[in-house]
Amino acid sequence: MRNGRRLGPVLLLLLSICAFSANLVHGAGSSASLSQLQTLKRSSHSQVLSLSIGEFEKYVERAPREYTLIVMFTADASMCKPCAPMLLAIEKIAKEYEELPDRKKSRMPVFFASLKVSPNDQAFLAKYSMQHVPILYAFRAGNTRNFPSPLNDNSPDNYQIQQFGILPNQMKNFVNARTSSSLSVVRSGQIPFVPYVRAVMPIILVFVGFAVFVGVASGAYKRPMVWFGLVMLVYIFSVGGGFFSWIHNQPLAVVDSNGITQYFAEGSRSQYVGEGFFVSVTCVSISVLVILIQELPWVLPYKSGQSAIGLSMIMMTFVAIVALLSLYQIKMPQYLRYSEM
Questions:
Q1: Residue 312 to residues 34, 68, 226, 304, Cα–Cα distance (Å)
Q2: N or C: which end of the chain has fewer CB within 10 A?
Q3: Ramachandran region, residue 92 (left: φ > 0; alpha: ψ -120 to 50; beta: rest)
Q4: 292/125 Cα distance (integer angstroms)
Q5: pLDDT tens-digit profile of 250-263?
Q6: CA 115 to CA 117: how far, in whole Å?
Q7: In this structure, are residues 301 and 310 in contact, taking their beta carbons and an 8 Å threshold?
Q8: Three-state SS for 76?
């Protein structure tokens, strides 16, 4: 009995040592694969690594993976016409990702690669159930060995080329969603507003500075109508931005028939959030202005003729807010609906 009691802790210690050793081996293997990919990337002339089947199996079937591997399966141009332009688009995206600042990149290393297959690779094609090319698949970092297994056509990790086509914006959205990165996405058909604003920024700053100087020197800043006009100006521009982004574009995300949230709107999420925040802040500013007009006599003294001005300002604010709410009430339900995709 005493020997049995002594053997228990010894066995637990041995099992712990074995488990720890196994983790070290797996961790060392994953680190070795990461180091090999980094070396291969440094020696490559392109940001898209050209992998053989053996290299693909080694890097993808490794568990745990401390990196994300975005692989495009391609073939000769004679058998796959869209493969060449799609590979060219992937190379541009990979180069753009490499030039991103660290704060906009994924926390895990990301590698872009291509793998050319042929009808002679029947065993490999059967193992991953590949029946067509091109395929763009994201093998994300993880601790489980979930490959080799058939590539799921309906998986979020599989770029839906039949639905989205070879469009840089859609492919960037796919990469951003799979890697939590922030590749810039430009809306199709949109005027590049930001570059124009940057180009005329000195003129805008001079104009704003001059307007502030005139407002202070003339004492116009003491008049409530001036502040009301400024707030209404911001309100008009913010409504215009909200109208453009929320009504004329597809929604940022919808829920498909399988209950999965799909992000496919052509636009960066930060831009959508910023425009929504702009509209909200403007509406709050107008509400605060109404309260000031009604409650603080030093803002709008109750003298002869001033009450009529105050009532007119309040009525204009009320009409503007009602118009905004009516617009969203009519238009938004048409776009925020379940998509059959």
A1: 68, 60, 14, 14
A2: N
A3: alpha
A4: 71
A5: 444 555 555 555 54
A6: 6
A7: no
A8: coil
Query: Which residues face 254 on adjacent strands?
Result: 262
The vertex-26 CA angle with 10 and 138, nearest 5°, equals 145
Q: Can you read off the two tokens belonging to residue 156? A: 């979020």
Look at the pTM and tell me if it is higher than 0.85: no
CA 206, distance to chain mean position in Å, is 35
As averages over each run of 10 residues, the pLDDT of the chain (341 residues) reads: 51 49 44 85 89 91 85 90 90 92 90 93 90 90 80 86 81 89 67 65 87 86 74 66 53 53 48 56 63 55 57 68 62 43 33
Please choose, from the candidates 93, 53, 54, the residue with its C-alpha nearest in 3D space to the C-alpha of residue 74: 53
CA neighbours closer than 13 Å in the CB half-sphere of residue 206: 4
| Single-letter code of the amino acid located at 83 | C
CA atoms within 13 A on the CB side of 24: 6
Using alpha carbons only, how large is the chain's radius of gyration in Å? 30
User: Pseudo-torsion of CA 95, 100, 104, 107, nearest 10°?
Assistant: 60
b vs e for 248-263, b when ≥16 Cβ sit within 10 Å of the residue's Cβ? ebebbebeeeeeeebe
pLDDT digits (tens, 9 = 90+) for 158-173: 998 877 788 888 889 8
